[in-house]
Design a protein that fits this description.
The protein is an alpha/beta fold. Helices cover 43% and strands 14% of the residues. Helix 3 links the parallel strand 1 and strand 2. It starts with a helix and ends in a 5-residue tail after the last strand. InterPro entries: LacI/GalR-like_sensor, Peripla_BP_I.
Length: 251
Amino acid sequence: KSIEMAARKRGFNVIFMNTEKDYNLEEDAVKTMLSRRVDGIIISPTQEKSEDIQLLIKSAVPFVILGVHFDDIEVPEVYSNDVKGSYLAVSHLIEKGRKKIVYLSGYLYKSVARMRLEGYRRALHEHMLPFDESYVFEVEEGVENSYKKMLDIIESGLNFDGVFCFNDISAIGAMQALREKGYSIPDDVSVVGYDDIAFAHFIQPRLTTVRIDKQKEGEEAFELLYEMIKRKEFVNKRQVLDVELVVRETT
């Protein structure tokens, strides 16, 4: 919505294509947009593969990557500081007395998951706690998947007292599993999510999370794209936006 509003102010219309986090649909969408000779493209890629990004580079059509970061490709990007966000989240858990912290991660081929893992590790290191990879679990996004994974972790007998989740949806699933198994949140286990979606404020207990300004992400992505369209040249700029820890009742 923020992209559409920013575009409208500049006299542009937006064609929206939802690819459902499916790389094949994503690649088809890129090809479709290029065939329509659009003025520019904003894409939030799955990062499962990067052939579609290479297509964009070769096309000379202005484009901006939104929400993720590519380590090995120099392209215009707008994304939030995921290393800082996860560092804040895990540091907060540690400061609440938690020392055995599970990380329910997204798939680590995604830059967002890798950067949040880096922040998780950094927080442990700076608080003199060891990193143990057996506490890191890659989970497909979705409330049911995180619910099932949390049940598996509990049933495995792993000793933990905190859970940091890749996003708020994962946190909701994890919290349901914890409650069903008799854990009190936050007395027995503290939980922190990520994104600060609307539900984070309304679930019980209210979710401590990391807030991303998605509206600003969208606005900045369009303004960067507009700059390239106006100048008729590639602008290789990376904009990293700040994040904020929002403390509620799950910690």
